[in-house]
């Protein structure tokens, strides 16, 4: 079992108390003889909570012999979950972000699901990049419940006033951002972190991680990221949210302080609720050197290898990620369905706003790159931000970040 996985629990136990909210929730038999299984996940907004509860109720109606206990881990989700898993009190089924999946798969705590799959489940219906995020060495350890890609959100009135067409290439984006920057409005609002810029960092042939080591201090990665640095420091056409008095890219966009932003599906309900008067559209992320790419963020349902009720746990996963359950869960558009058939049935594929997000799913780069990306991610962000602000050259920032990341990776191997 990986050192990084065990260390969380050791530190927790030595501290003399478990993490907040870490009271174990164990599955059991109910008084009326039903099999009770525990489903753990993080919380969502009220609408998402209602949709999940409805989906669970529908499952229980179809499987009257199974009772689902929904356990919400409000804080420090992965720390709490890992503590429970290694302590033998983990849930039967739980959420797993693709970002964390490689590490948890390597730790050996997940049940491979391939042997449970039957023909009626239609595995080929899933968007391929999302499914592959939970596969390793020919085995499938989770089925993705939803996802979001990034798309280009643009302010229609600002583009029209500036006489700017929606950019289709990255060069066009840079030129459009310059023309749109005026009167305290930035052309591009950008969050300078690896999760948003990963696809850009690899667009010139470089690799963020190689053989589970950070490798982003390369000429190719530097070249891929240089455009963002140039837009911030040379063109003055890009800024991060706090430079415009905003807390996020979508707030910056909603307040009219950025004409363009790269954001996900979550932006659509947010703008509808918070900035309903903004006239905007979406487009696929502009192509770089003729190639389309974007980021994808996805979460799967996975099974605890130590579950005492694996058949019941699989039935729940099968329903939640099956066509019927997924349709209910994603029906309001807060999350996009990973099944292509469900996206088509709900009309998301042809929707004027969500269509570009759905189109990106087939070619997206999933936010995931081995078990040590979380370490590399933290070090990258710390140094890249200083380069973005002009405090040090990009090459120097990448070299510092890579050196420190690999030092920490060696400790955790």
From TrEMBL:
<comment type="similarity">
    <text>Belongs to the bacterial solute-binding protein 1 family.</text>
</comment>
<dbReference type="GO" id="GO:0015768">
    <property type="term" value="P:maltose transport"/>
</dbReference>
<feature type="signal peptide">
    <location>
        <begin position="1"/>
        <end position="22"/>
    </location>
</feature>
<dbReference type="GO" id="GO:0055052">
    <property type="term" value="C:ATP-binding cassette (ABC) transporter complex, substrate-binding subunit-containing"/>
</dbReference>
<keyword id="KW-0732">Signal</keyword>
<dbReference type="Pfam" id="PF01547">
    <property type="entry name" value="SBP_bac_1"/>
</dbReference>
<dbReference type="InterPro" id="IPR006059">
    <property type="entry name" value="SBP"/>
</dbReference>
<dbReference type="GO" id="GO:1901982">
    <property type="term" value="F:maltose binding"/>
</dbReference>
<protein>
    <submittedName>
        <fullName>ABC transporter substrate-binding protein</fullName>
    </submittedName>
</protein>
<dbReference type="GO" id="GO:0042956">
    <property type="term" value="P:maltodextrin transmembrane transport"/>
</dbReference>
<keyword id="KW-0813">Transport</keyword>
């Amino acid at each position: 079992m990986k050192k990084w996985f065990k260390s969380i629990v050791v530190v927790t136990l030595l501290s003399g108390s478990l993490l907040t909210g870490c009271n174990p929730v164990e599955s059991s038999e109910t008084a009326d003889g039903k099999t009770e299984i525990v489903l753990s996940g993080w919380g969502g907004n009220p609408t998402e909570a209602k949709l999940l509860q409805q989906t669970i109720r529908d499952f229980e109606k179809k499987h009257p012999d199974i009772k689902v206990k929904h356990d919400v881990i409000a804080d420090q989700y992965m720390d709490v979950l890992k503590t429970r898993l290694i302590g033998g009190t983990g849930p039967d089924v739980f959420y797993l972000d693709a970002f964390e999946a490689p590490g948890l798969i390597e730790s050996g705590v997940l049940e491979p699901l391939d042997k449970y799959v039957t023909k009626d489940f239609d595995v080929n219906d899933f968007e391929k990049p999302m499914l592959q995020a939970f596969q390793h060495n020919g085995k499938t350890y989770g089925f993705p419940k939803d996802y979001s890609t990034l798309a280009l959100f643009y302010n229609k009135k600002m583009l029209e006033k500036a006489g700017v067409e929606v950019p289709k290439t990255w060069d066009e984006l840079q030129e459009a951002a310059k023309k749109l920057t005026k009167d305290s409005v930035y052309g591009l609002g950008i969050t300078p972190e690896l999760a948003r810029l990963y696809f850009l960092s690899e667009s010139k042939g470089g690799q963020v991680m190689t053989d589970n080591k950070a490798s982003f201090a390369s000429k190719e990665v530097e070249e891929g990221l240089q455009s963002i640095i140039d837009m911030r420091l040379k063109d003055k056409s890009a800024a991060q949210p706090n430079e415009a008095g905003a807390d996020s890219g979508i707030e910056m966009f909603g307040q009219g302080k950025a004409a363009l932003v790269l954001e996900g599906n979550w932006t659509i309900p947010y703008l509808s609720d918070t900035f309903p008067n903004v006239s905007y559209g979406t487009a696929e992320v502009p192509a770089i050197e003729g190639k389309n790419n974007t980021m994808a963020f996805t979460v799967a349902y996975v099974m605890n290898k130590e579950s005492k009720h694996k058949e019941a746990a699989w039935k729940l996963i099968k329903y939640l990620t099956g066509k019927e359950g997924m349709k209910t869960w994603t029906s309001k558009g807060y999350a996009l369905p990973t099944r292509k058939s469900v996206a088509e049935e709900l009309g998301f594929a042809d929707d004027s706003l969500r269509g570009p997000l759905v189109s990106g799913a087939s070619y997206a780069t999933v936010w995931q790159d081995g078990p040590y990306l979380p370490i590399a991610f933290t070090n990258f962000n710390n140094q890249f931000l200083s380069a973005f602000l002009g405090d040090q050259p990009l090459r120097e920032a990448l070299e510092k970040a890579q050196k420190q990341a690999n030092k920490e990776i060696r400790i955790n191997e």
